[in-house]
Design brief:
By secondary structure, the protein is of the alpha+beta class. The chain is globular. The strands form 5 sheets. It has a 7-stranded mixed sheet, with no helix packed on it. It has a 5-stranded antiparallel sheet with strand order 3-2-10-9-8, sandwiched between helices. The N terminus is likely disordered. The protein starts with 6 loop residues before the first helix and ends with a helix. The protein is 30% helix and 26% strand. It has 11 helices and 18 strands. The protein has 2 domains: 112 residues, D-Ala-D-Ala carboxypeptidase, C-terminal domain (Peptidoglycan synthesis regulatory factor (PBP3), Domain 2); 245 residues, DD-peptidase/beta-lactamase superfamily (Beta-lactamase). Strand 6 and strand 7 form a beta hairpin.
């Protein structure tokens, strides 16, 4: 048996998240301003944990190198996160520079999605193939965009970059949006900074090996989450299993789309310098995990390295889903606390969870979280339903604090003139008597 993990060791790794991957968590957790007044709210009763059915894991054929957090892995770099709770489950040199290879295409796709969402492009918009793009059709993975002067639709280019990993398609997109690939790379780097990818420098649109081009596993996971979260209308392109263009049918290089239940993206990559890598996302029972691995199977042929990459990525995802679970403290719309209202038709307004409040723990371990509602009160009427009025701080057993927004659960109109006068009189009378 290559690796043996008991629950106490899993819990210990979970408690190391803050110390070893605090910087990684900063990219995921939201920290709103702290209002003046706080009110503590007890967490709801803990739901019973369901027994987890074991799933078979493909056994690695090489020795597993240890990770700073989580289980050992054959990958040189690895990072796994539950983005819904900002919990890092796997961290192996995830903040160290590595070759992005074709995983850099995720940024090219992100910028193209951004253009579509903003209305500056449409799916049937067309870009022209340059001689540079045509020549790139003869190098590495290709979409076979056609001869110089050929026009290709934006939608076909999306499929060409994602499903076929076409380096030529990336150049067509880069030149179509920014004029030159160098100018587009500058835009890629600007967007990377905006997204918080502090360890990344792009030199081209495809990830083709270039001096000074690098990224980190943590940065690619962050890019994946932004893609999923920012462009739900277009993310489905990442789950296309195969596609035919110019009468040439090619399978998506992401084998997990066919092998691992719940997988819905994102991108594989391979270079001689960087080995085999993959950025993957999968959803099961409403819970999403994002995993990045790189530096696998150096020197192996494409078919062997791709197979090893799929096995190792599957093994890590199965571990993440099996050995950790999410507990919902409050569902979206649940009342966390009632806040006093000033000069409203009601004395109190329910503050509800704007989104599900969840925590990730090792399977079988109770979610002993403390919830504190924070708001600046009393809250002045009128209050509109859905208005953000505070936050809930969830303190986990390892000391981490997660912030979740709270919003008004109902409308609270302002009192009429007579009502306001009565309330003011009562307020000052009570204050005068108590003094």
């Amino acid at each position: 048996m290559l690796v043996s993990w008991r629950i106490d060791r899993i819990a210990a790794a979970f408690l190391l998240v803050t110390g070893l991957a605090g910087a990684a968590l900063d990219s995921w957790a939201q920290q709103p301003e702290t209002p003046k007044r706080t009110q503590q709210q007890k967490p709801p009763p803990k739901p019973a944990q369901k027994a987890s059915k074991p799933r078979p894991e493909p056994a690695p054929t090489e020795a597993l190198a240890p990770s700073q957090i989580g289980i050992g892995t054959l990958a040189q770099f690895a990072f796994m996160v539950d983005p819904q709770t900002s919990t890092v489950l796997l961290f192996k040199d995830a903040d160290k520079p590595m070759h992005p290879s074709s995983m850099a295409k995720m940024m090219t796709v992100y910028i193209l999605f951004d253009e579509l969402a903003a209305g500056r492009l449409k799916l049937d918009s067309r870009f022209q193939v340059s001689e540079k793009a045509w020549r790139m059709s003869r190098q590495g993975s290709t979409m076979w965009v056609g001869d110089p002067g050929t026009e290709v639709t934006v939608e076909d280019l999306i499929k060409g970059m994602i499903v076929l990993s076409g380096n030529d398609a990336c150049i067509v997109v880069a030149e179509g949006i920014a004029g030159t690939e160098d100018s587009f790379a500058e835009r890629m780097n600007k967007k990377a900074k905006e997204l918080g990818m502090t360890g990344t420098v792009f030199k081209n649109a495809s990830g083709w090996p270039a001096e000074g081009q690098y990224t980190t596993a943590k940065d690619l996971a962050l890019l994946a989450w932004h893609t999923i979260n920012d462009f739900p209308k277009y993310y489905h392109y990442y789950s296309i299993p195969n596609w035919t263009y110019n009468n040439i049918k090619q399978d998506n290089r992401n084998q997990l789309l066919r092998l691992t239940p719940g997988t819905d993206g994102l991108k594989t990559g391979h270079t001689e310098e960087g080995g085999f890598g993959q950025t993957t996302s999968a959803v099961r029972d409403g819970r999403r995990l994002i995993l990045v691995v790189n530096g696998l199977s150096f020197g192996k042929p494409q078919h062997e390295g791709g197979r090893d990459r799929a096995k190792e990525t599957t093994r890590l995802l199965e571990w993440g889903f099996r050995d950790f679970t999410n507990t919902t403290l409050f569902k979206a719309g649940d009342t966390v606390v009632e806040a006093p209202v000033w000069l409203g038709t009601q004395d109190k307004v329910p503050l509800v969870a704007a989104r599900p409040m969840q925590v990730t723990t090792p399977t079988g371990q109770a979610a002993n979280a403390r919830v504190v509602a924070k708001f600046d009160g009393p809250l002045a009427a009128p209050i509109a339903k859905g208005t953000k009025l505070g936050s809930a701080a969830v303190t986990l057993p390892d000391g981490r604090v997660m912030e979740y927004p709270l919003e008004a659960g109902i409308d609270v109109p302002r009192q009429g003139f007579v009502g306001r006068m009565v309330s003011l009189a009562r307020h000052y009378l009570v204050g005068w008597i108590s003094s």
